[in-house]
Design goal:
This protein is mainly alpha-helical. The protein has one domain (7-114). Helices cover 55% and strands 0% of the residues. It contains four helices and no strands. It has helices at 7-21, 37-56, 65-78, 95-111. Helix 1 packs antiparallel against helix 2 (37-56). The protein is elongated and about 55 Å long. The model has no long low-confidence stretch (mean pLDDT 90).
Length: 120
């Protein structure tokens, strides 16, 4: 839309983007929306921009956007809960992910007693 495409181009770009993004897990290390989320979001923006350019070049998505949305729902419904922002699977469950989580939790525990608590 921002690139002056018509409605068909917009829906085509969305369909192409969805086709590139289907099946991604949400596996935030230490339960924080930083690793790998920030990089994934930047990658998603690049994919969306590329998809818009592809659509403006009159390349059609093979699967229509409505069917992509249906497929996204089907994939999400069949995905195990540990891959849905629980920090229990994927990168969050790796050795390094667990070590980062432990360091962050220990840091939080050490900081909490030093904080001033205002009583109202």
């Amino acid at each position: 839309y921002c690139l002056v495409g018509d409605n068909d181009s917009v829906f085509n770009a969305v369909a192409i983007t969805f086709q590139c993004m289907l099946g991604l897990v949400c596996d935030p290390v230490a339960g924080l929306v930083e690793v790998p989320c920030v990089v994934r979001n930047a990658s998603a923006a690049a994919i969306a921009n590329s998809s818009a350019q592809i659509a403006l070049a009159q390349v059609s998505a093979v699967i229509p956007v409505d069917e992509c949305v249906d497929a996204m729902g089907e994939i999400g419904n069949s995905m195990e809960d540990r891959y849905k922002e629980t920090a229990l699977g994927g990168l969050a469950a790796t050795l390094t992910g667990q070590q980062i989580s432990e360091r962050i939790l220990i840091s939080d525990i050490e900081i909490l007693p030093d904080e001033d608590v205002k009583e109202e």
